[in-house]
Amino acid sequence: MKADPTQWSKQSQRSVAAGWTKEYTDIAYACWRCRKQDVFSAEDQHRTLCGQCWQEANDIRRSIEFSQRQWASAKSALRGDNVFLSGRLNLLVELEAYMPYKTDSAKKNMLLKLIKQNAQPALQADGPASGGPTA
For every one of its 135 residues, what pLDDT tens digit does the chain have, with 9 covering 90 and above? Predict the structure, then answer.
């Protein structure tokens, strides 16, 4: 398969490989996530995961996109829903197992903050009314 370095990232286009890579060939490799031995076909060399891990990561991305649409349409109601917030946070963390270089720290921090804020009223309700020590 003919290589087209113009389709590469700007950084990759500046690499030495951009000048000498003329075509892609099949390459044996181990998936960096699960370590399964696999073969990159010439068409798949944009990936670093085996086919199964690639599909799992795509499934997680689709779930994240769905939760983002839910968030966008019902943000005020979902801000207090720790089940939704925790699920969304877990999806972001799961995706990092497949793509550790693409973390979304801002979203994770926002979700953690909201979860903690939602837990505060529950903790206060369980404590003594006076706020002082109990006997």
Answer: 676 777 767 777 777 766 767 777 778 888 878 888 888 776 666 667 788 998 999 999 999 999 999 999 999 999 999 999 999 999 999 999 888 777 899 999 999 999 999 988 665 555 555 454 444
Give the Cα separation of 22 and 73 in Å (integer): 47
Q: Where are the domains of the chain?
A: 53-125
Measured in degrees and rounded to the nearest 5, phi and psi for residue 21 equal -80, 110
Predicted TM-score (pTM) of this structure: 0.65
- Only one residue has tokens 């390459």, namely 27
- DSSP-based three-state secondary structure for 11: helix
Rounded distance, CA 94 to CA 86, Å? 12
